[in-house]
Specification:
The complex is a heterodimer of chains A (413) and B (250). Chain A is built from seven helices and 20 strands. With 413 residues, chain A is an alpha/beta fold. Chain A has two domains: 255 residues, no CATH class; 53 residues, no CATH class. In chain A, the strands form two sheets. In chain A, strands 1, 4, 5, 7, 9, 11, 13, 15, 17 and 19 form a ten-stranded mixed β-sheet that branches. Chain A has a ten-stranded mixed β-sheet with strand order 3-2-6-8-10-12-14-16-18-20, covered by helices on one side. In chain A, helix 2 runs antiparallel to helix 4 and helix 5 packs across helix 6. The two termini of chain A are 35 Å apart. Chain B has one domain: P-loop containing nucleotide triphosphate hydrolases (Rossmann fold, 3-Layer(aba) Sandwich), CATH 3.40.50. Chain B is globular and about 55 Å long. Classes of the chains: A alpha/beta (413), B alpha/beta (250). At the A-B interface, helix 5 and helix 6 of A face helix 2, strand 7 and helix 3 of B. The complex binds adenosine-5'-triphosphate (ATP) and magnesium ion. Magnesium ion binds next to helix 1 of chain B.
């Protein structure tokens, strides 16, 4: 398919008539103006977009299938399940949580429009999401939600490949706290997912955000997150890209309030012919903010893993403290890892540290383990887990950590 | 019974020949000490026997229990009962010591046709065996050797020996880095693991260890060969006279 056809196809849905129709219309105008990205575009050149031209994806309809979500349950969490982009009340559990609602939003939520689609206007797939999203989870927190909020996006098997949209809006009022787990899964047949999570953190608010992308083997996944922090807010994010044939995660964080604090952890595990790309952009717009970023790529087979970590320190963001570390493990000579830190610093009063390493498994460590009777495959697995553990083990939800370890094991046979 | 027969073993690393014809025979129940100057090839011999991939065997043969050792990959050598306590134990960040020990123990048990232990059962066992080296169980929860002091690493090696119950244990300078009390503790630990079915090779620079673990044979290595073999009195003689007199005859 030609690029124009791709864009036209994605915008061909029947106009959605709901409380968001005006906003959807604006997003459509922007998407058309942006045009479909090209392989040579800076933002896409490391992976190319060939995969998006190979298939036509039909907009997913509401399905009558009830997928099994066994194995994804997080005990005690409050669960919002989307099936092919549509909210699925029977699989969800919102009991007793008035702070959480799922759109299509009624009139009373009009106030939330103030927070909707507030950025990434240069990202065509984000705009296509704003135009086409079906249901949106919205989490409005005053005070503290003790239970973990688990948003699970499931795609069901289809005869013809479908595209579905996931969307969440998380608004934390001053000093509010919540843990959000965002998760993606689906069958091993071809499909595509486009998701957007917006989070707005009020003064002193605290968001723990865990994102797990475990799409099926043929999936194309285009994910986005946009997070804005007010004064003294704290955002702690762990993003794992494990599945999919082609996956891309664009995460943007805006330090808008003084003294806000961000921790971004990320892990890509790519095998066989997978392509996985994480683009992050942290913008320091206010003084005295801190960002600490740790990203790891593991690439096996003939996969491609890309990390592009952009940090922008604006003119008035005095006293900024940023650290970025990018550590990468190349497991095969046919795999490729592109890790690119990009710093744009526009004032002198900053402390910016960054480092990148690219390595293979350590031969001495392997020999040591094998000299104790471990097969080479066991020893390799142990070392790969150890490498991933620095990211995975910061997740304090034990059931999730266990199931992630299993997924990682499964990916490394 | 012959446990290990090394005949004319030659090995090189990156094209440099290091072992230049080593002969050594070890029977079950024996304790051997190998001494020699820095760089004479003691660790190289140990690592070649354990199967380190950096070293190429260029000549000679090694039989372990009558079987050609060089036909076995490193993990198989461990499974048939060869154990090397490293001169410089490797730090493995991110791998928990207890998980590693259990995995190693269970692989070796399975290869011997015995049952694996689940984490709880293994915990009981390891807490029992850890007494052999009087190590604090807190070290089980840390990453393998990561940030361990020199002496703590050596104790961890002997803990592994105690768990894996090898037929032949090569202890490469296990005494270096141990304080005087630790040396006594570790030596007693090693002695408690001795039997008529297994054998021990100690690579050491110091007589002190040999007071605790008394060797049946003492070998001197020089420039990649064993140039002299004697009984325990040879070690005393070396302590007094150094190595020069041997180098002259060699
Ligand atoms: N990977 C290597 N590359 C180059 N030279 C090596 C390598 N490994 C060992 N050697 C050399 O081989 C020789 C023997 O080293 P080895 O470690 O076996 O000595 P050693 O007898 O154990 O000494 P020490 O008493 O100091 O432990 C040394 O000259 C050493 O530099
Ligand atoms: Mg040595």
């Amino acid at each position: 398919m030609k690029s124009d056809d791709c864009l036209a196809g994605l915008l061909a849905d029947a106009a959605q008539r709901d409380a968001f129709s005006v906003l959807r219309g604006q997003a459509e105008v922007r998407a058309r103006a942006l045009k479909f990205p090209q392989d040579k575009d800076d933002d896409w050149r490391l992976t190319g977009l060939a995969v998006l031209h190979e298939q036509e994806y039909l907009p997913a309809g509401k399905t009558t299938q009830i997928p099994s979500i066994e194995g994804f349950a997080i005990p005690g969490s409050c669960r919002i399940v989307f099936v092919d982009g549509f909210y699925h009340p029977a699989l969800s559990d919102l009991s007793g949580q008035d702070e959480i609602r799922v759109s299509p939003l009624g009139r009373e939520e009009k106030s939330l429009h103030a927070h909707f689609d507030k950025g990434m206007k240069d990202a065509v797939f984000a705009q296509i999401n704003a135009r086409n999203f079906t249901d949106c989870a919205w989490v409005h927190v005053q005070g503290e939600i003790q239970r973990i909020v688990h948003v699970l996006h499931v795609t069901t098997p289809h005869q013809k490949p479908v595209v579905s949209y996931g969307r969440a809006l998380v608004v934390l009022e001053a000093n509010a706290r919540v843990t959000l787990v965002e998760e993606y899964t689906g069958p091993d047949s071809p499909y595509s997912v486009n998701s957007m999570t917006e989070a707005v953190l009020g003064e002193g608010a605290d968001l723990r955000h865990i994102r797990v992308q475990r799409e099926g083997a043929q999936a194309v996944h285009l994910g986005h997150a946009l997070v804005t922090l007010s004064r003294g807010a704290h955002y702690d994010s762990t993003a794992l890209a494990l599945g999919g044939r082609f996956s891309r995660y664009d995460q943007r964080v805006l330090h808008q309030g003084e003294g806000s604090d961000v921790r971004l952890d990320g892990l890509i595990l790519a095998d066989e012919s997978q392509v996985a790309d994480t683009h992050t952009r942290i913008e320091h717009l206010a003084p005295g903010c801190r960002s600490l970023q740790q990203h790891k790529c593991i690439a096996n087979g003939n996969s491609i893993a890309v990390f592009s970590g952009n940090i922008v320190v604006h003119r008035n963001a005095k006293g900024t403290d940023t650290r970025q570390s990018s550590r990468n493990l190349l497991l095969s000579s046919k795999a490729r890892i592109d890790a690119q830190p990009q710093l744009e610093i526009m004032n002198d009063d900053v402390s910016c540290k960054h480092g990148a390493t690219m390595g293979k498994l350590d031969a001495e460590e392997l020999f040591y383990l094998m000299s104790r009777g471990l097969r080479e495959s066991q020893a390799r697995k142990l070392l790969i887990h150890a490498f991933a553990a620095e990211i995975v083990d910061r997740i304090s939800i034990q059931t999730l950590v266990r199931s992630l370890r299993e997924s990682i094991d499964g990916r490394l046979v | 019974m012959k446990l290990l027969e090394v005949k004319g073993l030659k090995a090189s690393v990156e094209g440099i020949s290091i072992l230049r014809g080593v002969d050594l025979e070890i029977n079950a129940g024996e304790v051997h000490a190998i001494m020699g100057l820095n760089g004479s090839g003691k660790s190289t011999l140990s690592k070649v026997l354990a199967g380190h991939p950096s070293y190429q065997v260029t000549g000679g043969e090694v039989l372990f229990n009558g079987q050609d050792l060089f036909e076995l990959p490193p993990e198989e050598r461990a499974r048939v009962g060869l154990f090397l306590a490293f001169q410089y134990p490797v730090e493995v960040p991110g791998v928990s010591n207890s998980a590693f020990l259990r995995l190693a123990y269970n692989t070796i048990q399975t290869s011997r046709g015995k049952d694996e232990l689940d984490p709880l059962e293994f915990d009981d066992l390891v807490r029992e065996r850890i007494k052999v080296v009087e190590m604090d169980p807190a070290f089980l929860d840390r990453s393998v050797n990561e940030g361990f002091s020199g002496g703590e690493k050596k104790r961890n090696e002997i803990l592994q020996m105690a768990l894996l119950d090898p037929k032949l244990a090569i202890l490469d300078e296990t005494d270096s880095g141990l304080d005087i009390d630790a040396l006594r503790i570790v030596a007693n630990g090693v002695n408690s693991l001795r039997s008529e079915h297994n054998a021990i090779v100690m690579v050491t620079h110091y007589q002190r260890l040999l007071n605790y673990i008394v060797p049946d044979f003492v070998h001197v290595m020089d420039a990649g060969r064993i140039v002299k073999t004697g009984d325990k009195t040879l070690a005393l003689e070396l302590e007094e006279r150094g190595y020069d007199w041997l180098r002259a005859v060699a």
